[in-house]
Amino acid sequence: MSRFINQHLAKLAPYVPGEQPTGRTFVKLNTNESPFPPAPGVAKALNRECIERMRLYPDPNCTRLREAAADYYGLSQDEVLPTNGSDEALFFAFQAYASGGRSVYYPDVTYGFYKVYASLLDAKGTAIPLNDAYEIQWKDYFDRDGMIVFANPNAPTGHYINHERIKRILAASPDQVVLVDEAYIDYGGASVIPLIKQYDNLLVVQTFSKSRALAGLRLGFAFGQQPLMEDLKRIQNSINPYSVNGLAQVAGIKSLEDRRYHAECCSAIVHTRERTAQALTKMGVRVLPSMANFLMISAPGLSGRQVYQGLYERGVLVRHFDAPRTRDWVRVTIGSEKDMDAFLAALTEVLAA
Ligand SMILES: *Cc1c(COP(=O)(O)O)cnc(C)c1O
């Protein structure tokens, strides 16, 4: 850090992304990417013409992508806002509804960015504890005096809460924005997007980085009633009106068009997740029930760090979060069948060592 930096930023603890190794090749199960390629239509669309169009600025309103997404999700176009990854949508929401000393509530074990954005934007962040089974205690989110944010399914736990419970949260804090981060909704959960028409305080965020295999492209979405989308667009237009690049706009449309491919990829992951969870349980490993494309696991007698390290030495990369409640755990992304066989073999060695 230089001596010139703003004092507030000097004190910040930034988000630490999962490793993206460049040298050695790993079985990479640490950042919840898809083992499958993007929909075949994506590669076809990123052609010469598309590259030539790169000399022009992209459409700042993402008109065609918004049309496609509105159609796909059963919303009107003004209820959809594409963003540069869903992290950007989350950032805009924190800026709009929590910045400047206002309160924001999120689970104590959840996506690390919520806490980072709260501190970056000078919001008053409060972490609400999960129960001992690492489940969101949904009633703890009633009657809050600030924005409520949670991932559903939650990360890194995989725990999912149903619509009835989310409706109760929405109704119990009608004057607060309730942000549901659905990064992992496609692996067996049901999106709350249809509830948007009913609740003016519901903000839903999704990403194309996980089930749609476009992490490198940076595309996410915010969904909500038009006034919420206007709030977020005001911020986007005050930072970078072109944050969703032209390639992402084209690829996003193509990804949405191929419903069958997307459904097949998701059900393959769900199938592999269930098989992997069963194998782990048989090995005596504790596995949290997951509705996402990852499993949170704890091996008897080993710290999360030791499991992480043992797997690392055997060429398998997983994620360990070194915080009090996650110290004994590692999060393992569901990859291909072959990836998971390699992971299970490596873990068997680690447990025997
Ligand atoms: C991966 C992830 C995101 C971020 O996705 P991007 O669209 O790649 O920015 C958001 N929320 C959760 C819970 C995630 O795990």
Question: How does this model look, in words?
Answer:
There is one protein chain. This protein is an alpha/beta fold and 353 residues long. Helices cover 38% and strands 14% of the residues. The strands form 3 sheets. The chain has a 7-stranded mixed sheet, with helices on both faces. It is globular and about 55 Å long.
List keywords for this structure.
3-stranded antiparallel beta sheet; alpha/beta; 353 residues; 12 helices; binds pyridoxal-5'-phosphate
Could you give the order of the helices and strands?
Answer: HEHHHEHEHEEHEEEHHHEEHEEH
Q: How much strand content do the residues show?
A: 5-15%
Structural class: alpha/beta
Shape: globular
Count of helical stretches: 12
| Molecules bound to protein | pyridoxal-5'-phosphate
The low-confidence parts are none
Radius of gyration, whole Å: 20 Å
